[in-house]
């Protein structure tokens, strides 16, 4: 079962917003590795290589798998319409659990919506709201976080706390078990409602020189009851560790 959590992608997108204050016309290229434990039954922690490709313009940005267009941008406020590829999926044939092998495939999709951040001396408020554009889940997700940046010579540390909202359709598609799947697999049928998932995170950046930057980010996610109660899930938490280097020019 090769699952790349949606929360992981959200972390990547948001981390690139907070990790660097790139000037317009700046490219960043690099390499990184990401470790994320899967909450699904019968799976294990995996390591994913993630290329770092970022571009920041006055009215447009591209950050790894996320692209957006600014509707409002100044030093304090950034509002954009954006779209990103969400690789969250489930392939029954990759599972090592016999019951999970009987479930239907869950597909990756293209999410689109709006993102807004407000920067002040007391910290940063970061929000996103997006929906499935390919009608696989017909689901929506939202995220709200507070972050505070510390500058220590070449180091930049940004701890944060937040919460993610998943709509009922989002949870049903990725964590629900239909009656037909229940009969085939022996797992109990399950229809979740919407959910709120809290998390804490920490990002760290080290400016090696004017061009090279090393970064690290970690997030701990406490899964909601709606997700934990799914027969597909056998963990109460998930999270990620992401580290790499980038070159700006």
UniProtKB/TrEMBL annotation:
<keyword id="KW-0472">Membrane</keyword>
<dbReference type="InterPro" id="IPR010583">
    <property type="entry name" value="MipA"/>
</dbReference>
<keyword id="KW-0732">Signal</keyword>
<dbReference type="GO" id="GO:0009279">
    <property type="term" value="C:cell outer membrane"/>
</dbReference>
<feature type="signal peptide">
    <location>
        <begin position="1"/>
        <end position="24"/>
    </location>
</feature>
<comment type="similarity">
    <text>Belongs to the MipA/OmpV family.</text>
</comment>
<dbReference type="Pfam" id="PF06629">
    <property type="entry name" value="MipA"/>
</dbReference>
<dbReference type="GO" id="GO:0009252">
    <property type="term" value="P:peptidoglycan biosynthetic process"/>
</dbReference>
<protein>
    <submittedName>
        <fullName>MltA-interacting protein MipA</fullName>
    </submittedName>
</protein>
<keyword id="KW-0998">Cell outer membrane</keyword>
């Amino acid at each position: 079962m090769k699952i790349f959590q949606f929360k992981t992608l959200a972390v990547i997108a948001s981390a690139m917003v907070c990790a660097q204050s790139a000037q317009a016309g700046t490219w960043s290229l690099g390499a990184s590795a990401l470790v994320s434990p899967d909450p699904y039954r019968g799976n294990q922690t995996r390591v994913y290589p993630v290329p770092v490709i970022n571009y920041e313009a006055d009215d447009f940005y591209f950050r790894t798998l996320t692209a957006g267009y600014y509707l409002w941008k100044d030093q304090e406020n950034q509002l954009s319409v954006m779209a990103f590829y969400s690789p969250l999926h489930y392939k029954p044939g990759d599972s090592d659990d016999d019951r999970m092998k009987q479930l239907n495939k869950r597909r990756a999709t293209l999410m689109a919506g709006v993102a807004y951040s407000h920067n002040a001396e007391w910290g940063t408020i970061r929000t996103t709201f997006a929906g499935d554009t390919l009608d696989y889940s017909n689901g929506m997700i939202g995220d709200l976080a507070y972050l505070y940046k510390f500058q220590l010579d070449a180091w930049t540390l940004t701890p944060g706390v937040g919460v993610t909202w998943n709509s009922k359709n989002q949870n049903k598609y990725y964590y629900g078990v239909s009656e037909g799947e229940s009969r085939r697999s022996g797992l109990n049928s399950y229809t979740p409602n919407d959910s709120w998932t809290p998390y804490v995170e920490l990002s760290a950046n080290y400016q090696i020189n004017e061009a090279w930057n090393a970064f690290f980010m970690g997030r701990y996610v406490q899964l909601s009851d709606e997700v934990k109660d799914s027969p597909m899930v056998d963990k109460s938490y998930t999270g990620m560790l992401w580290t790499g280097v980038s070159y700006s020019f």
